[in-house]
Amino acid sequence: MPAHAPRPYSVEIPLRWSDMDAYGHVNNVQYLRLLEEARVEGFHAWFGEHDPVLGRGVLVARSEIEYHLPLEYRHAPVVVDMWVSRIGGASYDLDYVIRDPERVGERTYAVATSTMVGFDFADGQPRRIDDRERAVLDQLLGDPVALRRRR
Q: What does DSSP say about strands 125-126 and 108-120: parallel, antiparallel, or unpaired?
């Protein structure tokens, strides 16, 4: 979790039976769905009626996930902690921790980051982040998640 941020936004996301693969754990591709569902909930909570997902437009330009533990299907949801780690002119990075709700720090299944780009669907091109969006994102700013990098 970020070292300097008021507190990450946390949302519980239920697992689906169909998330499970032949090995009996949540398939790695389903982690992207967990991140997407957390973003949709987060954007609604953060931006309200000015939600860039449904209003002005935002796209995922890049995602990177580091898997820590296998996540087995269960009825209990997972928690996705989410915060902003970088803000640019037309893009920003969202960082995430997917974990057990009761065991903060003990059961981290994955950490991830996504680069989000403001996009104007009517014009079909990227757009600058406006002052309203920037003000919200600034309040969520924290340190980047620690990902191991390939060299």
A: antiparallel
